[in-house]
């Protein structure tokens, strides 16, 4: 007698033997008991999860003469013929080989009106129905919508998105899910015991994990492993059969990735290439290890991995999740490479060079931005060696108790930055006062005393009236009280002060004399408007420059007072 494959030998014969799909089994069993049968069913889901098996069981149940409680007897002629694929009233069609509309017409449409030869129902099982052409679906549409009372259509597909919506809407659709690994392992243990195989639990767990939720693939893999190991299914034998590297080697490569150690990564991958392991299988094992370690470190699973303890102090768990996600892209790239081993190795080296702890980098950049905005000096340049190894960045803020941190708190915002903030606050509600401040010189006599020097007496009176309001605004911005004094422009040139110049008045005809400028040493020199250095340029684009940009319609980088000597010979 010829050998029978385990996937065929242990194929379920009734709904109770099907692993998983509890909702679908209950619905179909109740439909048979209550006589609430649909004229068309669509079973869709991944491969090897029981679509065609349940379709045949449903066909046996509908035509069984001695069915009890929705279960076929598996003894009558109808059940035996359906199981053997010889029933005249259960027609199983491979849609992949009957895609043309002529095949659909000759096999289904022209014969659908004929009564069953012996059984109660004529049942059409269309496997991989998504392979039918568009014309075939259109020809089949009316028949599926209103078939004769003795006809039932059962369609199975792995790609339901390719089935027209018109077909799906006229059928009862059932989504099949991948079978959990626990149920696959339980089934493999039962089959191994029945076949007398010596299989370890670790090996069966690896088979269940490699099957990807497909019971048929798991039984086929168990059959191969039993033949390879002469009746013994062990983990080492199974790793050689599947092309999996040893767990220690996978852990070594994963740890090198987490530590960003290129030398250790090269050493581990050299051993993997020397032993001839499949690169795609290696990358999948590496991705699975990183994912499982991340879930364990986050507390989602209680099962620790070999990497959990070693990587805990090396990098944060979020970095493992990012690595696992990037490995998915690498796997798809390596699949279509002409040199998978080289492509996989180079891709892993690129993952080593990319910084993983992006959250820490963002926090450091925010710290630097806050320091620059406060007017404090930036932190010195980083050590290139430490930066390359992704150690503590120079962007990290100084400790609260360090001298640098204390000095930053004492100095506070610079006077130039406070002046800019004052102009911004005044411009929102007091445009007239804002225009006066634009032409006013500010002398910073000290951290708590400023002298405002307007251009004329009218502006001096206006600033004197608004002095208290300006002091309140400054106190709100600086966190301390700053006393303001208002005097004429001549008083601005004090020995200890640092004046902030303002632009002179300009006319459309070009530069003209500035009436309110201090007299120059030479009476033949006049003041002209030119770009000048402003003390507030360190804080960014100040309002004065924005005002001049509107007048000159160009880019002004600085303001400078120059002396122009009049040509006495010109008339």
Question: Summarize this, please?
Answer:
By secondary structure, this protein is an alpha/beta fold. The chain has helices spanning 6-9, 22-34, 51-63, 77-84, 101-109, 134-145, 165-169, 181-195, 201-211, 215-228, 235-242, 247-259, 262-274, 279-297, 308-311, 317-335, 340-353, 358-373, 384-388, 403-411, 415-429, 431-438, 457-465, 467-478, 543-552; strands at 40-44, 90-94, 122-127, 151-157, 172-175, 198-199, 232-233, 441-446, 449-453, 483-486, 499-500, 525-532, 559-565. The longest helix is centred in the middle third of the chain and has 19 residues, at 279-297.
Descriptive report:
α9 (201-211) packs across α10 (215-228) and α13 packs antiparallel against α17 (340-353). 29% of the residues are buried. The chain is α/β, with parallel strands linked by helices and 571 residues long. It has helices spanning 6-9, 22-34, 51-63, 77-84, 101-109, 134-145, 165-169, 181-195, 201-211, 215-228, 235-242, 247-259, 262-274, 279-297, 308-311, 317-335, 340-353, 358-373, 384-388, 403-411, 415-429, 431-438, 457-465, 467-478, 543-552; strands spanning 40-44, 90-94, 122-127, 151-157, 172-175, 198-199, 232-233, 441-446, 449-453, 483-486, 499-500, 525-532, 559-565. The chain starts with 5 loop residues before the first helix and ends in a 6-residue tail after the last strand. The chain contains 25 helices and 13 strands. Helices cover 49% and strands 11% of the residues. Mean pLDDT is 77; it is low at 381-410, 490-541 and 561-571. A 5-stranded parallel beta sheet has the order 2-3-4-1-5, covered by helices on one side. A 4-stranded mixed beta sheet has the order 10-9-8-11. A two-stranded parallel ribbon has the order 6-7. The longest helix has 19 residues, at 279-297.
């Amino acid at each position: 007698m010829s050998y029978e494959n385990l996937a065929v030998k242990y194929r379920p014969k009734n709904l109770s033997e099907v692993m998983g799909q509890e909702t679908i089994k209950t619905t179909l069993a109740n439909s048979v008991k209550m006589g609430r049968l649909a004229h068309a069913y669509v079973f869709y889901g991944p491969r090897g999860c029981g679509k065609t098996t349940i379709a045949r069981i449903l066909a046996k149940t509908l035509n069984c003469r001695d069915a009890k409680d929705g279960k076929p007897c598996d003894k009558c002629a109808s059940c035996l013929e359906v199981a053997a694929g010889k029933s005249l009233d259960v027609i199983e069609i491979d849609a992949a080989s009957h895609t043309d509309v002529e095949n659909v017409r000759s096999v289904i449409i022209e014969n659908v009106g004929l009564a069953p030869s012996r059984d109660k129902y004529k049942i059409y099982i269309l496997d991989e129905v998504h392979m039918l052409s568009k014309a075939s679906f259109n020809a089949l549409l009316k028949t599926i919508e209103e078939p004769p009372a003795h006809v039932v259509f059962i369609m199975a597909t792995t790609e339901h998105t390719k089935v027209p919506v018109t077909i799906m809407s006229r059928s009862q659709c059932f989504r099949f899910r991948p079978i959990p690994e626990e149920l696959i392992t339980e089934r493999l243990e039962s089959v191994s015991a029945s076949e007398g195989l010596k299989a370890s639990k670790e090996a069966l767990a690896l088979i269940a994990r490699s099957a990807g939720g497909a019971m048929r693939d798991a039984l086929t893999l168990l059959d191969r492993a039993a033949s390879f190991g002469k009746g013994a299914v062990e983990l080492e034998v199974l790793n050689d059969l599947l092309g999996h590297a040893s767990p220690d080697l996978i852990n070594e490569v994963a740890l090198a990735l987490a530590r960003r150690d290129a030398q250790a990564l090269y050493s581990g991958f050299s051993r993997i290439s020397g032993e001839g392991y499949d690169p795609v299988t290696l990358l999948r094992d590496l991705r699975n290890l990183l994912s499982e370690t991340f879930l364990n470190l986050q507390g989602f699973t209680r099962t620790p991995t070999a990497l959990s303890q070693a990587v805990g102090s090396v990098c944060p768990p979020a970095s493992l999740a990012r690595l696992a996600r990037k490995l998915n892209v690498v796997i798809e790239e390596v699949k279509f490479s002409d040199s998978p081993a080289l492509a996989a190795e180079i891709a892993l080296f690129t993952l080593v060079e990319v910084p993983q702890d992006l959250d820490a980098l963002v926090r450091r950049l925010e710290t630097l931005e806050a320091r620059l905005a406060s007017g404090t000096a930036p932190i010195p340049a980083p050590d290139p060696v430490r930066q390359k190894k992704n150690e503590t960045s120079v962007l990290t803020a100084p400790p609260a108790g360090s001298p640098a941190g204390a000095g930053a708190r004492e100095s506070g915002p610079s006077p130039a930055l406070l002046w800019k903030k004052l102009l911004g606050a005044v411009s929102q509600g007091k445009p007239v006062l804002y225009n006066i401040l634009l032409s006013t010189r500010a002398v910073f006599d000290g951290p708590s005393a400023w002298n405002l020097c307007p251009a004329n007496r009218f502006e001096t009176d206006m600033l004197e009236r608004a002095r208290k309001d300006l002091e309140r605004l400054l106190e709100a911005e600086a966190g301390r009280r700053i006393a303001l004094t208002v005097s004429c422009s001549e008083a601005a040139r004090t020995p200890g002060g640092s004046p902030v110049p303002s632009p002179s008045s300009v006319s459309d005809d070009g530069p003209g004399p500035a009436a309110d400028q201090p007299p120059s040493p030479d009476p033949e020199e006049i003041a002209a408007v030119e770009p000048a250095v402003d003390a507030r340029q360190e804080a960014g684009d100040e309002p004065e420059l924005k005002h001049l940009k509107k007048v000159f319609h160009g880019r002004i980088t600085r303001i400078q007072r120059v002396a122009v000597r009049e040509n006495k010979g010109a008339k």
